[in-house]
């Protein structure tokens, strides 16, 4: 990819960023992760991969304003029209669009091309390990969701079967389970290196918030008349 095209796409990406958990630094980390993965793969089209990485979250604003929308679908359409409007070939724009459309973890629409799979893996790496914990906490704070839920009996819930959104619920629903879902060997290796830090953090946080509830309730009962 020539530098002018890179800067054109980068400038457009920067104009679309606003979510602190999915900011421009997330985009760069995904791009750099993707380039690391791509070194271990054959016949990667870097023009498609770099464009898809730069533009993969440009639909986040629309989803944040209307949660019924899918940022991957919105972003793929925005990227397609942006590229076509700036003189890129329709076939190229379509390939970038498909990469962006299939990068989302929760969707059933799975990535097909090599570049789409690399983007998928690179994006998921930014949810793994310590960085994944940090980004999730930032996002939960932005949407005013709690760290955890408490049962009717006053016990901190693990998140395993919670129905209400919280950090613990997100950890059990998504973060804990993502380590087996990579398409490329290199991404799986990197994720494995990061996994224990996330496990340790969750366990430590659960212990630190649940013990006061267990011990404190007993002490409170002793003090109440």
CATH classification class of the largest domain: Mainly Alpha
Described by strand count, sense and barrel closure, the largest sheet is: none
Structural class: mainly alpha
**What is the CATH topology descriptor of the largest domain?**
Hypothetical protein af1432
Provide the CATH architecture of the largest domain: Orthogonal Bundle
The average pLDDT score comes to: 93
Q: Can you give the helix content as a percent range?
A: 55-70%
Cα-to-Cα separation, first versus last residue: 74 Å
CATH superfamily placement of the largest domain: Hypothetical protein af1432
Low-confidence stretches: none
Describe the secondary structure blueprint for this structure.
Elements: H1 3-16, H2 24-38, H3 46-55, H4 60-65, H5 71-85, H6 90-101, H7 114-125, H8 129-142, H9 167-173, H10 185-223
Explain what this protein looks like in three dimensions.
This protein has two domains: 1-106, Hypothetical protein af1432 (Orthogonal Bundle); 127-225, Methane Monooxygenase Hydroxylase, Chain G, domain 1. By secondary structure, the protein is mainly alpha-helical. It has ten helices and no strands. Helix 6 (90-101) packs across helix 7 (114-125). The N and C termini lie far apart (74 Å). The mean pLDDT is 93. The chain has helices spanning 3-16, 24-38, 46-55, 60-65, 71-85, 90-101, 114-125, 129-142, 167-173, 185-223. 64% of the residues lie in helices and 0% in strands.
